[in-house]
């Protein structure tokens, strides 16, 4: 599946277009701006701009180089993102491992262009810098130049162990091969190593207007009506944030449905579900699940009182539940949610809540 269309940042695109036409595009560009506003997508657009073979307005999106960028198959486009730390001890094996991990992420993004931010533990390592160095030394395959897009460059952590990685990247950015264009992205330029930052020319991408976010979510996430409005408001001008929020709430809802099924499936299923919770759940994730349980119960309560909606909680076998039972159940969820704010084991809390719900429902 090709990349989804770039959204917004028209003024910045015009600037890049003009700079490119005049041959003034800085060779090491740093794209900054809030999470999820499309920095990497903008970087890929710049790659298209540089590779495009159309005569008129560029990038055309239709010529072969444009298509290959959009399909993430252009041989001179090198997109590098944070990956899991390599496990091998041999440096050569590490380079292979990192290159493989990057290729796997790109394969995933080809399948699913609406990707999530990189895992918080992932980063750029010495092996990543070596991958870049080696590819920078190669002759371009298809055209006159290569484009390197280094996502979340701030994840090159300035720790002692990584000093060598920083130096390797720095060397590359100090004297980039003439036929190469570097594009780095970072949310906060101040979190880049100052030596690296000083080699770059920044271009800031701001938050997108709600109309742009709305158009994108309507077209590519299939949202409409109130759900669309709600997500647009929560996105705060960031399409990436809107996508993550959707994933999180889907996850919470799935977990809530699973809990309610376990509640009606008997004591063994309840304790099994509680054990699955694990003692160290991320607090935000746990409370989101409780909120989703409350939402499902409130829906059930509305249906039971004849206010409309689905007949009961779809996750539980239909039973003669009174509106009162749902009110009771909601009270227990509220209690659990309050307890979840404190320093309490979520596994125990969930076991108690599941028993409470089984009792009242
Ligand atoms: Zn083109």
Summarize the helices and strands and which ones pair or pack.
Blueprint: H1 10-21, E1 28-32, H2 39-51, H3 64-70, E2 77-80, H4 91-111, H5 126-137, E3 146-150, H6 163-174, E4 180-186, H7 194-197, E5 201-204, H8 210-220, H9 225-235, H10 239-264, H11 267-277, H12 283-304, H13 323-341, H14 346-360
Parallel strand pairs: 1-4, 1-5, 2-3, 3-4
The structure holds zinc ion.
Features:
single chain; Rossmann fold; 5 strands; 7% strand; elongated; binds zinc ion
Give the class from helix and strand content and strand pairing.
alpha/beta
Give the distinct bound molecules.
zinc ion
What is the number of helical segments per DSSP (H or I, 4+ residues)? 14
Q: What's the alpha carbon Rg, rounded to whole Å? A: 25 Å
CATH class category label of the largest domain? Alpha Beta
The CATH architecture name of the largest domain reads 3-Layer(aba) Sandwich
* CATH topology description of the largest domain: Rossmann fold
CATH homologous superfamily title of the largest domain: P-loop containing nucleotide triphosphate hydrolases
Describe this structure in words.
The structure is a single chain. By secondary structure, the protein is of the alpha/beta class. The chain has 2 domains: 10-206, P-loop containing nucleotide triphosphate hydrolases (Rossmann fold); 250-360. Helix content is 54%, strand content 7%. The protein has helices at residues 10-21, 39-51, 64-70, 91-111, 126-137, 163-174, 194-197, 210-220, 225-235, 239-264, 267-277, 283-304, 323-341, 346-360; strands at residues 28-32, 77-80, 146-150, 180-186, 201-204. Strands 2-3-4-1-5 form a 5-stranded parallel β-sheet, sandwiched between helices. Helix 10 crosses helix 14 (346-360). The longest helix is centred in the last third of the chain and has 26 residues, at 239-264. The protein is elongated and about 75 Å long. The relative contact order is 0.11. The mean pLDDT is 88. It binds zinc ion. The site of zinc ion has 9 residues, from helix 3.
């Amino acid at each position: 599946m090709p990349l989804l269309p770039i959204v917004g940042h028209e003024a910045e695109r015009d600037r890049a277009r003009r700079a490119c036409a005049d041959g003034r595009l800085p060779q090491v560009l740093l794209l900054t701006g809030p999470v999820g506003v499309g920095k990497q997508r903008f970087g890929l657009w710049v790659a298209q701009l540089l590779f495009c073979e159309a005569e008129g307005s560029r990038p055309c999106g239709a010529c072969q180089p444009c298509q290959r960028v959009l399909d993430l198959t252009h041989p001179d486009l090198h997109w590098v993102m944070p990956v899991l730390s390599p496990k091998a001890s041999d440096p050569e094996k590490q380079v292979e491992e990192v290159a493989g991990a990057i290729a796997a992420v790109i394969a995933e993004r080809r399948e699913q262009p609406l990707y999530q931010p990189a895992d918080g533990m992932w980063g750029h390592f010495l092996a990543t810098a070596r991958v870049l160095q080696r590819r920078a030394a190669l002759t371009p395959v298809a055209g006159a130049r290569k484009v390197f897009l280094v996502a979340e460059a701030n994840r090159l952590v300035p720790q002692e162990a990584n000093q060598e990685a920083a130096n390797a990247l720095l060397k590359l950015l100090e004297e980039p091969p003439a036929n190469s264009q570097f594009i780095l992205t970072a949310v906060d330029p101040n979190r880049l190593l100052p030596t690296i930052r000083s080699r770059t020319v920044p271009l800031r991408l701001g938050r997108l207007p709600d109309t742009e976010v709305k158009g994108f979510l309507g077209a590519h996430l299939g949202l409409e009506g109130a759900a669309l409005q709600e997500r647009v408001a929560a996105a705060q001008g960031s399409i990436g944030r809107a996508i993550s929020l959707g994933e999180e709430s889907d996850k919470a809802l799935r977990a809530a449905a699973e809990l309610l099924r376990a509640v009606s499936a008997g004591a063994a299923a309840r304790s099994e579900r509680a054990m699955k919770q694990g003692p160290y759940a991320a607090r935000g994730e746990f409370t989101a699940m409780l909120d989703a349980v409350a939402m499902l119960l409130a829906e059930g309560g509305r249906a039971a009182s004849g206010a409309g909606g689905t007949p009961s909680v779809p996750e539980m076998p239909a039973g003669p539940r009174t509106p009162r039972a749902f009110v009771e159940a909601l009270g227990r969820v509220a209690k659990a949610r309050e307890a979840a704010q404190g320093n309490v084991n979520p596994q125990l809390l969930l076991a108690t809540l599941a028993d409470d719900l089984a009792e009242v429902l």
